[in-house]
Amino acid sequence: MAEIILEVKNLKKYFKTARGTLHAVDDVSFTIEKGKTLGIVGESGCGKSTTGRAILRLLEPTDGKVFFEGQDITSLSGGKMRQMRRDMQIIFQDPFSSLDPKKTVSQTIAEPIVENKILKDKKAIDTRVRELMKTVGLAERLVNSYPHELDGGRRQRIGIARALAMEPKFIVCDEPVSALDVSIQAQILNLLQELKEQMGLTFIFITHDLSVVNHFADEIAVMYLGQLIEKAPTEELFDHPVHPYTKALLSAIPIPEVGIERPERILLKGEISSPIDPPDECRFAKRCIHTCDQCRAACPQLLEVSPGHFVSCHLWKEFM
Amino acid sequence: MAEQKEKVLEIKNLNVKFVLEEETVEAVNDISLHMEKGETLGLVGETGAGKTTTALSILRLIDSPPGVMECEKLEVCGKDIKNMSISELEHIRGSVVSMIFQDPMTSLNPVFTVGQQIAESLERHENLNKNEAWKKAEDMLELVGIPRERAIEYPHQFSGGMKQRVIIAIALACSPQVLIADEPTTALDVTIQAQILHLMKELKEKKNTSMIMITHDLGIVAETCDRVAVMYAGRIIEEGNLDEVFNHTLHPYTEGLFNSLPNIKNRRAKLQPIHGLMPDPTNLPKGCAFAPRCNYATEACQERRPQLTDFGGTHKAACLAYENKDFHIERGKKNG
Amino acid sequence: MAKTAEAAVTRKARSQAAEVWRQFRRNKGAMIGSAIVLVIVFIAIFADVFLDYDTQVVGQNVAERLQWPSARHWFGTDELGRDIFFRVLYGTRFSCSVGLVAVSIGLVIGVTLGAVAGYFGGAIEEVIMRSTDILSAVPNMLMAIVIVSVLGQSIWNLMLAVGITSVPQFVRITRAAVLTVRNQEYVEASKAIGLTNRKIIFKHILPNCLSPIIVQATLRVASAIISASSLSFLGLGVPAPAPEWGSLLSGGRKYIRDYSYMTLFPGLAIMITVLALNMMGDGLRDSLDPKLKK
C-alpha cells in the first residue's frame, strides 16, 4: 500500500450570498497517494478551484478536515500553517494576474526563499534563483525582466519556479495551461511532467480540459455542482465511465482527427443549475436523461463500484 | 464536384497594419481567401496569428487609425466591399454578413431585453414593423432552443451558454449569406460547447449559410469545417480540405500544432511542443516567419519568404523545404 | 500586446531606487517639477539667511504702504508697507511645512486605515468606513477649529488638524485601489508562500495602489495650504504677523479691487508649488510603474 500524502474528509465550503447559501464545495472526500497526480475535472462553477484553495486553506473550509502527511491542517494556527505551506504550493491559472507587476522575475522567485528564511546569504539566494530558473526553462538573461515584458508561457514558468522555491512535496495546479496557446501549453505540460518525475511531486491538477488530464493525471475526480460524482484511475475512467455526466463530458471533447469514426455524442439538455441552497436530490437530476423518482428523492452517496472506482449515482448498476 | 458553386467571399492580397507611434504591427500579410456557398471555412492559429483581424477586415471593421487596410479585391456575394460607402456597409453588416464574438458576457447590451436586441436588426434590415419584428425575434429564440416567453428577459437572467444562443439568434435573424464566428465557444464549458456547435451546424445547414469558423481548437475544426486555413504570423501557411490538412499535413507548423495536442487515445505519448515563441509582429523575420522555430529549417528559409504553392487538389502550403523533391515531414511519412 | 523580451539583452540588475530614478530622469515635466520643488525647499530652509525677519518681513513701513510692484518692491507692498516679495519668500517656510507635514499625517493614517479596510473587509471595514463617513460629515473647517481649540494654538497643532481632516479622502481612495488589487491571484500567491497579512499589504498591495494615492497626495498639499491659511485667517493658525501664504492671501482680499497684486503673488506662489508637486507626483507615479518602462 502506497503512502497516502493527502486526505480530504467531508470538505465543505459555503459562501453566504444575498440569495442564500452557495454550496461551492459540498461534502467532498478523497485521498491521494504520494507521487501521484489527481486530476479534478468539471465545468465552471462546479467548485473545483474552491476545493483546491480550501485544501491549502487559502479559503478557510466551512467544515471538514484535510490531513497532510497524517496531520490535520485545518486546525493549525496561522503561524504553523505558514510553515506547512512550504510543503504545499499552488500554481495559478492566469499567468497575467498571478505575478506582481511591480516585481522582477528574480524578486518574485526569491520572495518565498527570503520570507521563509530558507537561505539568508544574498549570493546563495541569487544562485538558487538562477538554478530554479534553469529548472523551469527560463533563460538567465530574464532575471531582471518584469512580467509584462514576457509572454504567457514564460510567466507561467515564473509561477512554477516560485512554487518550487520552497521545495514543496505537494502542488495544486489550478488550470495551469488553460490561458495558453496549444504549442505553449504542451511546453508547460511537459515541464510539469518532468518536474513530477524528477522531484517525486504529488499534484492536484484542476482543469476543465479532459484531454489535458488524460495525459497528465493518474487518477481523475469528476465534480458536478460542488460534489464529487465519480473518481477512478484515468484509464478506467476513460474506458468505462459510469456516471451519465462523465459519459456526456467525455463524449463532448472535440477530437482533432478526420476520417475516424466518432463516438456518439451525448448532448445534455440545459445547463448547470444554481449551487445556491440546492435541494436534496441528485444534483445532476435536472439534466440527466435517466432521471427517475429515486434520483429526485435523495442525493446519492459515493460508492466503490469496482476497486478504486467510485461513483455517486443511484442507477450505477445499470450503467456498468 | 463538377457543378460550379457560387462564390460568396473572395479576398485577394489583404494586408492589415497597425501604425503606432513607435512601431508598425504587421497583423495580416498578403492573405487571399475564397469561400463557396454553404461552405464552412476554419481559420486556425494561435493568439496573435491575425485570425480576428482578417475576419474584421471582411466587414471593414478595422479602426483607422491606427489600422491601415489594403487589398486588391474584397467581395462578398459579388458585392465590392472594398469601395463601398459607409452607409452601404452598414446595410451589409448584420444582413449579408454577420458576426458572432467570443465573449457572450459582453456582447449583449444589459439594458435591453434579448427580444428587443434580436428585433432591432430585423427592423433595421428587413423593413419589418415593431410587431412583426418582435414575432420573428421570438421565432428566432425558439430556433436556437430558448422558449419564446423568455424574449422579455434581460441578458443577466441568462447563463453563458444561453447568452451565446441569443447572440447566434441575433446573428442569424436576417438570414445572412456569410456568418463569421470568432471563437464562439471558447468561453463556454465543453458540454455547452457541444450543444452550441451542434446548434450552429444544424442552423447553418437549414439556412445554407456559409461560415468562417475562427478557432484555435483543431478538434472543433475537425467537427464543423469543410476546409481549413492555418495562419501563422499574419499569413496563411497551409490551406486545404479537412482530409488534406489533417491526414496529409504538409507544413511543419501544422505538424507542430498536432504534435502539441494531448492524444486522447494514447495517454502515454509524450507531447512534442513547438519550441520558442511566435515572432514579434512589429519585427517579422525576413525569411519564413516560422523558420526560427522549425526543425526542418534550412538557410534558404532564413533568406527567402515562401509563397503559398499548390500541392494538388485544393491543398496549398507555404514552405520552402518542398523545393527539395524528397522532402517530407515526419507526420507526412506516418500518414503515408 | 505582450512584447517579448526575446531580443533584449539581459537588463543589468539595478537597485529598485536606481531603476526608479533612471525612469524619473527621462520625464521632462517631472524633472522641471522637482527642480521647482527643490528651489522652494531651498528657500524655505534658508529664508532667514537672506532675510532679516524683524525688519524685512514683519517690520512695518507706513510711508511705503500700498505700492504697486516696482524695481524697489518686486511684488509691491501691503497696507502696512511690508514688502510682499520678502513676505512670500519667507512664507514658504510656514506654508510648505504645513502642507507637507499635514499631508504626511493624513497619508500615513489614511492609507493604513484604507488598506486595512480594503484588505480585510467584513466588520473591520464597516467600522473604518463608517467612522470615516462620520469624520467627513463634519465640515473640515469646523473639525480643524475644534482640534486646534482643544489642543491649543501652535503650528504643530495646525498641521495635525489639517492632516486629520484629509484622512477620510485617503482612506476612501486607498480602499478603492486595494479592492481592485486584493483579488488578483498574486495576492493569493503570496499568501500561499507564507507571507503574513502585514507583509502582503505593504509589499504587494500598496505598491500596486500607488498611482491614485500619489496624485491625491500632491493635490492635497494644495488644499492643505489653503486650509491652513483659512485657519490662520481665523486666528487659529500661524499667529498674525507671520507671513503664511494663506494669511497673505486673506489679508489682501480686502484690497483686491484696487491692489490686486496683493493677492496675485501669494496666489501664484501657491499655484506654482502645487503645479510643481503635481508634475513631480505624475513623474513619480510613472517611474514607479514598470509597465511604462521603455
Q: Decide which structural class fits the backbone of chain A.
A: alpha/beta
For the largest interface, the chains and their residue counts are: A-B, 41 and 44 residues
Q: Largest beta sheet of chain C, briefly?
A: none
Assembly form of the protein = heterotrimer
Number of helices of chain A: 11
Tell me the span between the first and last alpha carbons of chain C.
Answer: 15 Å
**Shape label of chain C:** globular
Task: Please tell me how large the radius of gyration of chain C is.
Answer: 23 Å
Unreliable sequence segments of chain C? 1-9
Structural write-up:
- The complex is a heterotrimer of chains A (320), B (336) and C (294).
- Chain A is of the alpha/beta class and 320 residues long.
- In chain A, strands 6-7-8-3-9-10-12-11 form an 8-stranded mixed sheet, sandwiched between helices.
- In chain A, 32% of the residues lie in helices and 24% in strands.
- Chain A is globular.
- In chain B, strands 7-8-9-3-10-11-13-12 form an 8-stranded mixed sheet, with helices on both faces. In chain B, strands 1, 2, 4, 5 and 6 form a 5-stranded antiparallel sheet that branches.
- With 336 residues, chain B is an alpha/beta fold.
- The longest helix of chain B is centred in the middle third of the chain and has 18 residues, at 190-207.
- Chain C is mostly helical and 294 residues long.
- The model of chain C is unreliable at 1-9 (pLDDT under 50).
- The chains are: A alpha/beta (320), B alpha/beta (336), C mainly alpha (294).
- Chains in contact: A-B, A-C, B-C.
- Chain A binds chain C through residues 53, 56, 58, 78, 82-83, 85-86, 89-90, 92-94, 97-102, 104, 106, 111-112, 115-116, 140-146, 148-152, 159, 162-163, 165-166, and chain C through 2-5, 8-14, 184-186, 188-196, 199, 204, 207-208, 288-291, 293.
